[in-house]
């Protein structure tokens, strides 16, 4: 008999344990009603994970303490906290990665525990140990488990001894370039170069041949030093086209350990996950049991306490091999919560306070299917280049029992260039995979953002791909299906153009009426937007910009208030009204008798249309004499793709370069970017030095034609 859980659905579909007794297959177990040892918790993180931890803390009656950098002074997690303390400048090394500053706040605020979230200090052995020495509960595993699992070479030895399948490679102490390259040749290309303390795709590179090994090695080392302050690397065979399957495990201090089934995180870009689901598609009950039991063996091998994730590589025949263990709460933990009806942050708080696990293995049941889509500020068409900027408009699908919006930003907030570009996680649940996927796509169409580029349209393209819908996923899914996932931009339909034009006309009419209402002569014909003007007719020409194309629309104002719009040889009968609903504008429109309802966001000369059929951006071109003149220094050279720090300058004035040669290494959005020469030539000027900040589109290097400087 399954566990009987007395619970109530929260806004995000989680069950919060409030009962004193839990009926299980093993009889009645006592569940305490609170975490008596923890009355105040400091969340040593920012953004969505800090907000997510605070929500559960508040439900449990635990006070929350936030820390923030200069860049996050007005952020959502600061506003949500009961207390908030400033810890330094935007750079992570001087704020969120400073264990001394975080510990100082923990002691000053009287916090009983520290929740590290994910990233930053979450897998820092020294921080976990320092908390313990200061009498502060670290909400995570023992520092010994973090150390053993955090060093990939050590973890593989431990896993092998525990009977967990592993994949071969070099994990030795000799870190010379010559030894690592020799080991790569011995293993056979392609190989994966990994930072031993890596995670989140940082410090990882694929070398496909001997000729590019050293460049990839140095790049991985630089990123590892920046992210983990440790550039020790391991080399292992890169398994082509595998699945990335991971198991959520949980242990307590009383020797209990359980698994909460698996998640499939195969679809990735830049070695980072983009969409996750639970359970894994096509994995049968027997393989699921084997995965879970192997993960529990891994956890018990290091006396694991708290939430952890054991990651496996899985081949086409469902053979799986240990990859690494993340000794923290994962970004994608909500999908496991959705299929098991649990709150893993509550479990973390309870276990950290010394309680036993709320459920044992036989009491944990899997129900339905869940997806998580990570919504990023990035440009998928430009190699997923991350971006930063203001969220000028932000609206989301309404959260309910089966829809969660995990976010740390609000409309008007800035996505900072200093941190990860993730805006939110959209999490949905359905009775089966097909229902959950349908729900995901419906909600993605309701996620509307204006102000910066996002991956929402890409997520819609990905989730609608026939192979993804069939569950045929692997880590090479995006490159394998690139052409279908990135189709050539289509021209908006005539109906869409008419909707945009109508939106502009109605917006103009509303503005004109407001102006007339405040005028001394509200009946002046110059306050009319009906098309009437002295000595003019009732026609109007409007030019719209759609991507790189201009479309001319001839508009006729009809006496009944409707419009006739001509696009080329086509005529469209158009009517509609603009209505305010809940702070947003909605266009109720009819084009040639077909009615539609779209959200309309007009900013300056740009019209953003959102509907269940898709989105479109249309603008009114700015006259050339008003447009800003681009700087000549950027022409013929290299420019900064985003705001960031110049980590390394690889050229100097007078150097000759070829197309694709590396010019600079830039750190932005927690990632390393190599700036390469757009053409062959001679370096004229280098505008930035190492350690300096460059703004987006700033010229970095002036590149001259060979011999051009002498002419």
The largest sheet has its strands arranged as 28-29-30-31-32-33-34-35
The major β-sheet equals: 8 strands, antiparallel
Q: SS-based structural class?
A: alpha+beta
CATH architecture assignment of the domain at 501-619? 2-Layer Sandwich
Distance between the termini: 87 Å
State the helix count. 17
- Write down the Rg: 28 Å
User: How helical, in percent, are the residues?
Assistant: 10-25%
The CATH topology of the domain at 501-619 turns out to be Glycoprotein, Type 4 Pilin
**In total, how many beta strands?**
43
What does the overall shape look like? globular
Uncertain regions: pLDDT < 50 for 5+ in a row? 1-33, 523-527, 531-537, 625-635
Can you describe this structure in just a few lines?
The protein has 711 residues and is an alpha+beta fold. Helix content is 24%, strand content 32%.
List keywords for this structure.
single chain, 711 residues, alpha+beta, Dna Ligase, domain 1, Glycoprotein, Type 4 Pilin, OB fold (Dihydrolipoamide Acetyltransferase, E2P), eight-stranded antiparallel β-sheet, 17 helices, disordered N terminus
């Amino acid at each position: 008999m399954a566990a009987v859980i007395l619970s109530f659905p929260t806004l995000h579909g989680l069950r919060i344990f409030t009962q004193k007794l839990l009926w299980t297959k093993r009889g009645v177990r006592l569940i305490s009603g609170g975490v008596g040892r923890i009355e105040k918790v400091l969340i040593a993180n920012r953004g969505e994970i800090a907000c997510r931890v605070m929500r559960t803390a508040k439900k449990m009656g635990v006070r929350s303490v936030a820390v923030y950098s200069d860049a996050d002074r007005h952020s959502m997690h600061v506003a949500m906290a009961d207390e908030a303390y400033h810890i330094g400048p935007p750079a992570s090394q001087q704020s969120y990665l400073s264990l001394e500053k975080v510990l100082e706040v923990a002691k000053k605020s009287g916090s009983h525990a520290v929740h590290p979230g994910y990233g930053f200090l979450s897998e820092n052995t020294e921080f976990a140990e320092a908390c313990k020495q200061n009498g502060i509960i670290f909400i995570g595993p023992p520092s010994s488990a973090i150390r053993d699992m955090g060093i990939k070479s050590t973890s593989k030895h431990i896993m092998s001894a525990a009977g967990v399948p592993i994949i071969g490679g070099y994990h030795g102490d000799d870190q010379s370039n010559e030894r690592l390259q020799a080991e790569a040749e011995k293993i056979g290309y392609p190989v994966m170069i990994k930072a031993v303390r890596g995670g989140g795709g940082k410090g990882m590179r694929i070398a496909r041949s001997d000729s590019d090994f050293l460049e990839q090695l140095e790049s991985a080392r630089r990123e590892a030093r920046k992210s983990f302050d440790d550039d020790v690397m391991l080399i292992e065979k890169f398994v082509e086209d595998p699945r990335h399957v991971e198991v959520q495990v949980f242990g307590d201090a009383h020797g209990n350990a359980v698994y909460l089934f698996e998640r499939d995180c195969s679809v990735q870009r830049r070695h980072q996950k983009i969409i996750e689901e639970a359970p894994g598609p096509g994995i049968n009950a027997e393989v699921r049991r084997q995965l879970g039991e192997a993960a529990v063996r891994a956890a018990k091998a290091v006396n694991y306490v708290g939430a952890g994730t054991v990651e496996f590589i899985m081949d086409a025949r469902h053979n799986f091999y240990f990859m690494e263990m993340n000794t923290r709460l994962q970004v994608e933990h909500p999908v496991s919560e959705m299929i098991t009806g649990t709150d893993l942050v509550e479990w973390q708080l309870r276990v950290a306070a010394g309680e036993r696990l709320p459920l044992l293995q036989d009491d944990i049941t899997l129900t339905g299917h869940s997806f998580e889509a990570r919504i990023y500020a990035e440009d998928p068409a430009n190699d997923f280049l991350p971006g930063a900027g203001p969220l000028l408009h932000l609206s989301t699908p309404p959260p309910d029992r089966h829809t969660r919006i995990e976010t740390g930003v609000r409309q008007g907030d800035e996505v900072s260039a200093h941190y990860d570009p993730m805006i939110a996680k959209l999490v949905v649940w359905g009775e089966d995979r097909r229902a959950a996927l349908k729900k995901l796509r419906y909600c993605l169409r309701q996620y509307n953002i204006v102000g910066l580029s996002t991956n929402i349209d890409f997520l819609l393209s990905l989730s609608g791909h026939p192979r993804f819908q069939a569950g045929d996923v692997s880590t090479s899914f995006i490159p394998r299906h690139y052409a279908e996932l990135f189709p050539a931009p289509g021209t908006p339909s005539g109906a869409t153009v008419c909707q945009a034009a109508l939106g502009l006309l109605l917006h103009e009419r509303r503005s004109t009426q407001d102006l007339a209402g405040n005028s001394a002569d509200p009946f002046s014909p110059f306050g009319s937007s009906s098309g009437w003007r002295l000595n003019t007719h009732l026609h109007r020409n409007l030019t719209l910009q759609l991507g790189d194309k201009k479309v001319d629309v001839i508009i006729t104002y009809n006496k009944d208030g409707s419009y006739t719009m001509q696009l080329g040889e086509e005529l469209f009968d158009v009517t509609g009204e603009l209505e305010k609903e809940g702070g947003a504008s909605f266009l109720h429109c009819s084009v040639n008798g077909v009615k539609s309802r779209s959200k309309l966001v007009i900013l300056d000369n740009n019209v953003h249309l959102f509907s269940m059929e898709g989105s479109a951006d249309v603008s009114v071109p700015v006259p050339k004499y008003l447009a800003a003149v681009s700087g000549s220094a950027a022409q013929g050279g290299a420019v900064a793709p985003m705001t960031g720090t110049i980590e390394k300058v690889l050229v100097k004035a007078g150097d000759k370069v070829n197309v694709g040669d590396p010019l600079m290494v830039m750190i932005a959005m927690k990632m390393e970017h190599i700036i390469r020469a757009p053409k062959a030539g001679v370096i004229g000027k280098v505008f930035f030095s190492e350690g300096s900040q460059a703004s987006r589109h700033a010229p970095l290097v002036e590149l001259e034609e060979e011999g051009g400087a002498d002419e």
